[in-house]
Amino acid sequence: MRGVRSLPPAASGPAWRAMMAAVSRARRIGPGRGARRLATRSTILTLGAGSMAGCAPGAPGAPLGAPAISLFGAYFPAWLLCAFIGVIGAVLVRVVFIRVGLDDMFPVRLPVYVAVAVIIGLLVSFFGFGR
């Protein structure tokens, strides 16, 4: 076979072969559709890897993991507590709306109270954990 080289042991997997096939296909096709598709894929992979680099715990300026709360000897994520507080807050807001008479004015109640729960949960997260 013309142009076939032996690959190093680490570069002989199926992902490596697929990548090399795509590169050679793009070279054969030239600056057409295949080359653009390869460039688009590599751009997406590069942007994805770059955006995820900030999520690494050792990244400069990045927090060391998600906030956790120790309850009963186990660590629970802080968003779980914020969601629970949001749901309880939405129930209390509903009780207040029923007593005031605003609950009957909502044509669709579920989205209103879900939004109230999300807003309360986000406010607790922001003011409680600074995120």
UniProtKB/TrEMBL annotation:
Membrane topology: Multi-pass membrane protein
Subcellular location: Membrane
Cellular component, GO annotation: membrane
InterPro entries: YtcA
Keyword rRNA-binding appears in the UniProt entry: no
Source organism, top-level taxon: Bacteria
One Pfam family in the UniProt entry: Ytca
UniProt entry tagged with the keyword Transcription: no
Key words of the record: Cell membrane, Lipoprotein, Membrane, Palmitate, Signal, Transmembrane, Transmembrane helix
Chain segments annotated as transmembrane: 74-98, 110-129
Main location: membrane
Record-stated family: Belongs to the YtcA family.
Protein name: Uncharacterized protein YtcA
Organism: Camelimonas lactis
